[in-house]
Prior knowledge:
mainly alpha; three-stranded antiparallel sheet; about 5% strand
Amino acid sequence: MTDYANFRSALNAIVKTLAPHHASDGRRAMAGKLAEAATGKTIDNLAFRYRDIGHLFFPHDEAAAIELGERISAARRAGEIASIIPFGDNGLLPTDLLTWANCPPVRASNPLSHWLPITEYDARGNDAPLTLKETVPALPAPEQEQAQEPSGTPRHEANDTREAKDYATTARICEAFPPPKSVNAERWASSEYLGDCPAWLKTARESNGKRGVSAMWNPAQFAFCMVSNGHIGKGAAAAIVRHEFPDWLDAWEEKGGFL
């Protein structure tokens, strides 16, 4: 039975799977990650190219791997996958796939099962399925506001006792923060963009808006989302929180440590 509970065994399997698809420089880079892991270091920036992720799901189907890589790229552009890796870097952490509602089924034979819950059993004669790892959060439902986030993504504590008035309205957020890349200033100022709430910002929204009542936002988490998705620099985000939302500075500094 395949067992990828050990980080090194999972990374070994990834290197073996991807090696045929990489030039020598790429193989050396992956070998370097493995060597670093062998020293006992935790590799926080274990990011893989979109096409590499495709090959991990479809190791024997080049066309399917390429197609999945293109789907991942499109999902990133649409804000359907949240990640601390800047979009332009063309890479994702394995746990980022937890935020993607359309992630393909994960089999026990896929070394990504070290980070992701197994959602499909292997065919008879292949590796037996592993027990679903309790430490891996389930895929969040698209409209479930309290869905668990991927490991390493900070949010306010569950026992946060802030009242609704402590959060920021949509208009206040749009006044304080610049528009994300590719969003024009007029649409941002009108609050139209946040009214639709893209997937990559849903962790920052504390309550939905309704007719006559604004949605409410967590400024610290909003800043974190903007930085982690490459729409604003960390220093600029810190300055905005410090000057516009000083009561949230401690929360921002805690989250900023993950960037």
